[in-house]
């Protein structure tokens, strides 16, 4: 893990043990190669592995995320067999190519375009901050197929293999956190895609893009809850070892207050996350619960990791210590899958009866 973080390179050798343990299929049905887990069970798995390393949580949650869920919900049986099955079985990695250099939170402002040809489609444009950019076998990619369309209209979804003619990928170096995750950019210069790689109906791709957002945010909340648990575990060990003015660091009341706040943050994040998971398992509306869980968890992770670095003092400045990595990963978690600001807007709109995804 330390080597992967330092080298900013995902270690492929971690995939096989997770695959053999049956942890990569998530909530994808068994008939399509998944584990067929309910949301609570899947969240438990994601939380546990994430407490050790956030990158592992991202890997375990991938199949049930936007790519897998998009294919399950909108793909044809042939697409599910060709693309979803290996993803769910853990023999393939995939990225969700929605964000562009000039459109992040406002994803509907994308500029990538796709033109129909006799052989299929030709895509031109760029995507950025895409997970698994360097390691992904394919990408669920979005582009405008209707010239002059604006907003969510006229967008179509495509499966773009990593080896598609005209596609180049570059990995981003020097990221603040989640360093071993191969995040990067996709550049499509007249990238050729077969007609059968169109996912869903032409011009209805934004529905594909949004179809798994709720589930993705739920698993991010579970991943973050695991991060909080990891911070608390590291702090609990350190304050029993570190001595200051002839006393254990854990004997000081100010330390105890910080630790107590961490416990409360963890229990609240877990409660909100698993309540949202239970609502989804029961087929009940869960949007508000998921937004609340993710918002609370990501801000709690930032607060908890900041206090942990403070307790570690100068050692917290060193990347050799786990809390340093958690602090950096926590900041990333406040941005990916919906910033705190966007989540607050969405929650407010729900209260006002103007709900959207």
TrEMBL record:
InterPro entries in the cross-refs: Acyl-CoA_DH_CS, Acyl-CoA_Oxase/DH_mid-dom, Acyl-CoA_Oxase/DH_mid-dom_sf, AcylCo_DH-like_C, AcylCo_DH/oxidase_C, AcylCoA_DH/ox_N, AcylCoA_DH/ox_N_sf, AcylCoA_DH/oxidase_NM_dom_sf
GO molecular function list: acyl-CoA dehydrogenase activity; flavin adenine dinucleotide binding
Domain Acyl-CoA dehydrogenase/oxidase C-terminal: from-to ranges: 203-350
Membrane as UniProt keyword: no
Task: List the PROSITE patterns hit by this protein, alphabetically.
Answer: ACYL_COA_DH_1 (PS00072)
Q: Where is the Acyl-CoA dehydrogenase/oxidase N-terminal domain?
A: 2-90
Residue ranges annotated for the Acyl-CoA oxidase/dehydrogenase middle domain, each copy included:
96-191
Any idea which UniProt keywords this protein has?
Answer: FAD, Flavoprotein, Oxidoreductase
Cofactor(s) essential for the protein: FAD
What is stated as this protein's family in its record?
Answer: Belongs to the acyl-CoA dehydrogenase family.
**Protein name as annotated:** Butyryl-CoA dehydrogenase
Q: Which organism is it from?
A: Euzebya pacifica
